Amino acid sequence: MRRLSRGRIAAVSLTLLIAWVFVALFALAVGSVPIPPGGLIHRLLQYISGGSAADDPLATILFSIRLPRIFLSSLVGAALAVAGAAFQSLLRNPLADPFVLGVSTGASFGTILYSIFAASWGAVEAAAGLAFGRPIAAFAGAVLVVAAVYYVSGGGSHSGEGSQRLLLAGIVLASFISSINVILLTSTSQADLRGIFYWLIGDLSRPVDASIYVVALIVLAGFLLLYLFSRSLNLISMGEEEALILGVEVRRVKAGVYLIASLITGAVVSVSGPIAYIGLICPHLGRMMFGSDNRILFPAVFLFGAIFTLLADTLARTLLSPVELPVGVITALIGAPLFIYLARRRSGL
Amino acid sequence: MNRTAFSSSLEARNVSFSYRNPVVSNLTLELTPGTVTGIMGPNGSGKTTVLRLLCGLLRPDSGSVLLHGTTPLSRLPRKEIARTIAMVPQSPGDGSQLTVMQFAMQGRYPHLSLFGFETARDEEITKDALEMTRLTQYRKVRVCELSGGERQRLLLARALVQQSQILLVDELTANLDINYQIELMRLVKSLTQERRLATLVVSHEIHLLGSFADRIALMSEGTIRCQGTVSEVVTRENLNRLFGLDFHVRPAADGLLEVLPVINERR
């Protein structure tokens, strides 16, 4: 196998980025109102040169509805995928994913609590507090659940059996908190039951608001920080004692990765709801194609996540068009069988 | 700092450590460049704990582990420790899907910066270490396909890639056939002399340590019972006290000792 170089990482990242652009163009074109390639390119050129016609309904669909949604789904997917890759490396378990670990559900718990309190405070919501408040509340919920999962599973060592216990604790706590989420939501007299129901499964159909910029900032910064840990994580995935011997500050790296992965998970879940299994599917694909060196895996998985989620969301809004499915349905339909396959292979069944 | 000014590379002073019960008590031990020191003792005597204390994986409850006679290990960042002290664990971790080359190259970690990628020089160092441990032909083989002896050699190779001055070796020869045991110990010994390493070998193989170590410490129940040169320490009386068995200890050619337990089953 070739020595990993910056050049190879750049080449892989660029290739995937180009692939993403093509998928994005495809996603722009399809929908309940299909837009032919010629019209799409024409309007794109107009948009880039700043000369979009204000009264063109197709341009409105393209750039006010589809384009923001494309960025949103890519951002959410990239974040969940790279968080999954980080958790898997940290826990030395290919089944660890923000959803399975309960991190996503914890983040939605934080989001729901925030919206309940923010609504009762009213005035606060009007201020810029909204943009920052929601992702941060989601992060707090995520960290809370990570701590609870860690505590319930007995914490300590994560090798073999320990990390299986951690996943089990995550799944159990996630179902527990999901129930609380439903109680909270139904008891606060929400009219939009369909919206709530969709959001709980993971949904990208809500209009994008200003908090997306904050979320984007958190995700990009978090990704860069995780990348700084990628080499140390390579060694930690060999075993914590091995990593210590080779010079890794294991405790610092673990705490950092836990926090950052929870932060970016929290940030995206606050807008999209807990979309399942993206953090399982994309790193699995990434490892099959590029091996398990996190220095190349993280950027590849980040872009895989964007592409995959964009495709899944496009499928979700076109499959039963004009009715939209929540994207979480599509990812779970693909992810759950993969989870079973990986779990069986791991336990040697 | 002029490192040659100090005679000791790594030193434990009155080190004690306990989990619930004391595991190591009042340990004083010195490793010097160019010397193989052996720690010998029965199972559960605290040998491996000593090793873990000496490379900072465990922190002593009292006493201190000093690098070059001055710097307490507990004050150093892990990377710096790993540049100075390499440890060969008993078995590799979960790295079985890596190739031999990738596995050995992990030893470069403490020498690389945050964004650092291995350079051609790092690759050269790794190839040298594989050459020395006779693993060159397996460079592209996955670790899980290696035999037990090859794995032990690979662990030693990775430690060499760290280019440290201190080498700690934990039961390198456990579960190996006698010819491999001797081959590995020979390699450790010659590396120690060529590279002026301060080497510590933990083992319960009396005959190996008797032949290859320059100094020996006998351990039981967490305490070093006696230490010194091989001929001072490896005596019938000491071994009898340590293992509760009778031994034949005879001088052999080249100043070596021949040690044989007396197994009297046909009484």
What does this structure look like?
The complex is a heterodimer of chains A (349) and B (267). Chain A has one domain: ABC transporter involved in vitamin B12 uptake, BtuC. With 349 residues, chain A is mainly alpha-helical. Chain A is built from 15 helices and no strands. In chain A, helix 3 crosses helix 14, helix 4 runs parallel beside helix 7 and helix 9 packs antiparallel against helix 12 (250-272). Chain B has 267 residues and is an alpha/beta fold. Chain B has nine helices and twelve strands. Chain B has helices at residues 47-54, 78-84, 100-105, 120-132, 148-161, 178-194, 206-212, 230-233, 236-243, and strands at 10-18, 22-31, 35-40, 62-67, 71-72, 85-88, 166-170, 198-203, 215-220, 223-229, 247-251, 257-261. Chain B has a single domain, classed as P-loop containing nucleotide triphosphate hydrolases (Rossmann fold), CATH 3.40.50.
